[in-house]
Amino acid sequence: MLDADALAAYSERARQEGVSTLALTISAMTSTTRDLAGTALRAVFPVHSRYEQRWHDSVGWFITNSVLESGDPDPSACAAALKEAARLGSHPLAELMTPWGGMPEAPGMLAVSWLDMRRLPVTIDNQGLEAQYISAGIRTDGVMLWFVTDTSGIHLRCRYPDTPEARQSVGAWLDDLVARMRRSSAGGG
Q1: Cα–Cα distance measured from residue 70 to residue 73, given in angstroms and rounded to the nearest whole number
Q2: Residue 154 is inside which H or E element, if any?
Q3: Burial class (CB in 10 A: 0-12, 13-18, 19+), 33
Q4: Cβ(87)–Cβ(21) under 8 Å?
Q5: 44 neighbors 111 (Cβ within 8 angstroms)
Q6: Distances from the Cα of 139 to the Cαs of 44, 142, 143, in angstroms?
Q7: In this structure, which long-range contacts are made by residues 37-42, counting pairs with CB atoms below 8 Å and at least 24 apart in sequence?
């Protein structure tokens, strides 16, 4: 989506707004969703789940799913929505959902994952390694987005149902989102 130079400009834009690069991206997603679907952005959002000292030297991804809801595209409001998602993710969902029969399995969910490789305690030469992110081939009725940020830029993977409706709506949504982020990195709104 954005190469290294565009990412640097995009990150600077986020700093000027007083938010993270992720919050600026949620702002773009909120605007895209509002303009194309007429609704707030609502997605399953993996959040970090281990903050105790005993986990600091562990290896692995410690996440839980939360809900990210963003109706206001103002970057500060999006930063607040991200904080709320992290707060919600600190509660054990299984215990909360037990009185209602456990976790619901509703079709058609949107899930958004954000991985900023620049924040890892080690540097990995992705281009030299030609790293690939591979997912299993499955039938799906939801949309899954993976944003991966590294020193070469922001990359986006998307999995969605192979239906005419999904191809049209998800494709239009992705095109709009990418255009917004590129405009933002170029100094536009």
Answers
A1: 7
A2: strand 153-159
A3: buried
A4: no
A5: yes
A6: 18, 9, 11
A7: 37/173, 40/69, 40/70, 40/71, 41/68, 41/69, 41/70, 41/71, 42/67, 42/68, 42/69, 42/70, 42/110
* pTM confidence score: 0.84
What's the whole-number mean pLDDT along residues 12-41?
97
pLDDT in tens, 54-105: 766 666 666 677 889 999 999 999 999 999 998 888 777 777 667 777 766 7
Alpha-carbon 101 to chain mean position? 28
CB-count burial class (<10 Å; 0-12, 13-18, 19+) for 98: exposed
Q: How far is CA 177 from the centre of its chain?
A: 12
Given this model, what pLDDT does residue 25 score? Answer: 97
Give the phi and the psi of residue 3 in degrees, each rounded to 5.
-80, -175
Task: Give which of 112, 37, 42, 111 is closest to 71, Cα–Cα.
Answer: 42
- Burial tier of 82 (Cβ tally within 10 Å: 0-12, 13-18, 19+): buried
